[in-house]
Description:
By secondary structure, the protein is an alpha+beta fold. It is built from eight helices and 14 strands. The strands form three sheets. Strands 3, 4, 5, 6, 7, 13 and 14 form a seven-stranded antiparallel β-sheet that branches. The chain has a five-stranded antiparallel β-sheet with strand order 8-9-10-11-12. Strands 1-2 form a two-stranded antiparallel sheet. The protein is elongated and about 65 Å long.
Amino acid sequence: MIELFTIVLSGLFTLVSPVGIVADHVAEGLIRERLVRADFLDVRIDNAPNFQILQGRVERVRLAGRGIYPVPELRIDIIDVETDPIDIDLPGVQQGRLALDAPIQSAAHLVLKLEDLNTLLQSQRVQQLLDQLPFSLPGQVGAREADRYRLTNPQLEFLGGNRIRVRVDLQDQVLQEAIEATVESGLEVVEGHRLVLVDPLVAVEGQPVPRQLINRFVEGVQDQLTLKQLVDLGITARVLQFEITPEALDLAVFVRVDPDSPLLNP
């Protein structure tokens, strides 16, 4: 989501020239150039009065996309974005910097299909992330055990009641064999920013993992499952809608980016 927002935001900044704002179809082209692929993309710009345009102000930007690929491995089935007024630091932009005079606020609606998420999970990008995770089976300790297992072949399934199931193979680097693990949990968004695991279940080779071990793990990760971690990037984000159907994840979010966000000039 952050990568996509960066693409859209950088596209908006390139719309500003010394004489104002370019046309909608040019804006669409500029944003499309920053995407890997877009089956459908439509951008609408509501311009401010001319004197405000010359100062770098845009009243509203609306973007509608279908079949959007911000990176090669991820397809977003539906994305609709609408911004509040945008105040661009025109001298900063003309010097080649992404710069704002005021925070930018937007609401976005996304639909991610299950099949597209599984394509992402099977990608080399995700496998590289999994390879960086230290992992050991419950009850095993020591550095050797932490490096013994490698997580591979993750597969996601959407269940009823906002529950998901993830299957993953644990590749035993010592015995050179694979062990199947299954993680199932309900998901709930609390206070718009915190993701809570509801009644999580874990099984290894079909055998349930004791509840006390699961609770210990959940306690260790629960504080990390929050959008408040984005505050250090100058980003405030809130989930407005969260729904899982058997086919897709339907998500609506509010995002605010501060002028001093390192996201603007990484």
